[in-house]
Amino acid sequence: MHINPDPFSFLTNLDYTPCRLPRLEAVQFTDPHKGLWELWGNDAARLKELGLVARDPVRDVCKRSVAIDFGTSSTVVAMDDEHGNRRLLRIGVRDFYQAPRGTDFENPTVLEIIDFKRLATAWTAQAYRPEVNWDWVHAAHEAQASFRDNPGDTAVLASILPRLKQWALRSAHQTLRLTDRQGHEIELPPLTERNPVRGQPMQVTANDPFDPIELYAWFLGMAINWRGHGLFLKYHLTFPVKYEREAKDKILASFRRGLQRSLPPTLIAQPGAWQGFSVEEIASEPAAYAAAALPHLGIEPSDDGIPYAVFDFGGGTTDFDYGLWRWANTDETDEGYDQVFEHLHSSGDNFLGGENLLEHLVYASFQQNLDVCREQRIHFTRPLDGQRFTGDEAFVHPTQAAQTNTVLLAAKLRAFLESEDGQLDAQLRIELLNQQSTKTPCELSLDRQALDELLFTRMQNGVREFLNELATVRHELPENEPVHVLLAGNGSRSRHVKALFDPQGEHWPQLLQEVFGPDGSPEIIIHAPLPIREDNHHAPTAKTGVALGLLRLCPGEGVKLIDHVRSTSHDEAPFRYFVGRLGRREEFTPTLTPHIPYQQWHQLGPLPQGVFKLCSSISLRARAGMRQGDPELQIRRLDFPSTNTQDKLFARAIGPTRIELAVAPDEGSLTTRADLFLQTLDLAAG
Length: 686
Prior knowledge:
alpha+beta; six-stranded mixed beta sheet; 19 helices; 27 strands; about 25% strand; globular; disordered N terminus
């Protein structure tokens, strides 16, 4: 049998099908990209003609778990084999015959749309294992290679969706357009929750909205459900703690659709054969990392609990997580558990992520070259938390040309962000798109020192916030046990993070003194990010540890997770904001703070002339004080006509980003007044 080399060969090569067909050497195919999954049982006549008999796919159903860490930059897939070994999968590498590398298992969360019309036609023609051609769409490593290896080809860049996870979160508020390689423009509809009906075969039509998360999940499923593994029905995902229930449910629904569509139709056709199919969330990302890292480091639980704190510096955000790892007590042992993870507290920096920092480097570099941008009519974009500058309306635009310019310059600055030495050439020649989307040669000046200081300052603020949050939960930790700080995420490999967490360096002692003061800090043991081991690709690393740890938390593993954060918030993400008013000296004075209980009223203050200036921020710097004008402080004018001089404004948290407002003379009136007017405000809506 001759099959041409293909970067996604497991989609078409019979040797990777779950049917385990015999006598493969006698089969000839002229088109390796088309229709080979028909031989998995779709076309009985063709099988008979070839003298082959498809194996019953029910025999290939596995009852083991699959763990998926769907990340901003990369996605990791882990599973147990029949011997209990935990293994990782690589998705869409260019050459599967090439010797594996540790980074191969960090599968980029990227799609590249080459021919959307042909892709959409095939994608909506049949629900299960649609005949999608690799020449129409690339995923993971191959798409990432196109994104990074061709930074000057604007046609390639316009066809790539590099941050699927961030798009999923922003799609309701931010329109995104792609242009495939054929010049066809695609406007992505907002992500919606479209769950398949449990136990019923899925149906697809040409009217279904295009869901890139579903398509990416299908690619993952096609890598999971093949001959060498079997067919899997149990999938577990992990999310950051701060993700709202609504956002998580949308992503889970897309994964349910995509993963289910990777199962063979011959399995779906057999009643009851796939009824156990499920895709569920079971843990937060930092908690899953702790479940992998602590045992890997040779640490054992204790009866009182080993305190841990995770600093998870990822591509989108940095998450902080605090908890205890202990032996199960008598009651828990009777329930079948051996160990217990208690999740005590979570927080994080929503803008301290590798990709966000890269956007800030780009934004700062463009500002350093406004004369060039003005002369050549160059537009660019602003990070979500970027500070405006005078005259920015001429430069900052949400156009595809502006987005492309940001991507082009980001490709040039990525090495500076990720390098050990932080070297950067002072001059950069680059082709950018002007306002007519015409390529224009530009020469930019880059201030290495200023850009490096930008990185250091933002990371230092993140480490300071991490320690401040540790100080707030210190009373919940055993006094006689040191706190194990686990550095997770590829961002924790940064030269600045290493320097900031160095116990022998100048910055760490200063930060401890600043946060804990004269009373002194608890004993802290810092564990560097788990390294990539080329001698054992399936050992947990700073990135893959989340998926591998998630396997340890799956049902039946004897490890119990007690999530105090989720139980307090009734399975919703905790409230994320600081909310209050300005003080006498224009300093922000928060009344509502992150993690406060929902549905409890708090007085914000009086309403002079029926007006209230509501201040809010998600920055942890609000604990130490922020002033009017801070780019991370949002101020809204709220008007309340017909108020009395004795009236006050009250607020209560009703969701991770939403508050409810009411005007009343006192708290008692909130429950007794029949004419009480309630107003809902989404703080994330801007």
